[in-house]
Amino acid sequence: MNSNLSFLSLIIVLATMIVAIFSVFVTGLAVWGGTKKLPISHMVSFIGYPRSGKTTLITLLFSEIFAQRILRGVNITPRGEETIKRINEDIARLETGRDLAPTTDQDLFNYRMEMLTGRTFLSRRYKVEIGDFPGEDSQNLSDKDPDWLHSTRYFQWALNADVFLFIIDLAYLSDLESDEAKKYRSTITSSFRAAWQKIKDHHYDGARKLRNNPIVIVFTKLDLLFDLQNLDTQNKAKNLTNSPKDYNKPVPMDAKEIMGKEDQIKEYFQDIIGYLKSETNRFDIVFSSAFAKEKTHDARFGMERLARSVLPG
What we know:
Mean pLDDT: 80
Strand content: 15-25%
Order of helices and strands: HEHEHEEHEHEHEHHEEH
Helix content: 40-55%
Number of helices: 9
CATH topology of the largest domain: Rossmann fold
Shape: globular
Strand order of the largest sheet: 2-3-4-1-5-6-8
Structural class: alpha/beta
Low-confidence stretches: 229-244
Distance between the termini: 57 Å
């Protein structure tokens, strides 16, 4: 009798284990299938003034990913004819030393792609949109009122983004004591602070927990602060276009060696950095350059860190 009960108990335990394993397997398939059918939306907004290097920054991200210099093993596929065409045309422009075409008011261009992370049934699939800020023109920043940033149609799209990048152009900062640099700092600080306050006001009903949304300050054109190739520093600083110097031969830069200059820039913009950092649990600062690469590997300077700060994973 006891032996029969023991055998029955063993059967029940085995059956329970089989059901549990099957349940986990089915749940995994459901997650995988659901992920495959319904990719998770992920919107990234680049917020900044004309000719600050936003389009170049986006193009660099794609170029470095395609070349497998960053995010190795992550499957990224551009979606839509317009996205595929623009990405490849802009990469070709950089590689052949031509200016990138400015983004116009009419474009309101969103780069679309799908991103697959992981290789098992628990992998996640994302529908990523990267917004390129419009309004590029030939006017100088001095002609722009700080409120110009918030009145654009693109900003209405950016209000609902998942990641917010604020772009600061280092081309204005060759001399931190100059009137031009001080005016630029003042304009950027007031404009970006107001931009974030408008984003918060838009989500005042609490529908979005913005503290969990990444905020990244990106300093572009880092190479302009260093005489990398014995070029005239003043002439480089005045070149506010996205025209490459020698894109195909990026100069190695040691992150440790330039840390002092980076700290100086951070201190110069301490007000806006302190404000935005206090508004999120996921804050980062990235220094980037299209014409310099990390000394420890071949990736363009700052691109690996930028990608991991703004893309899902």
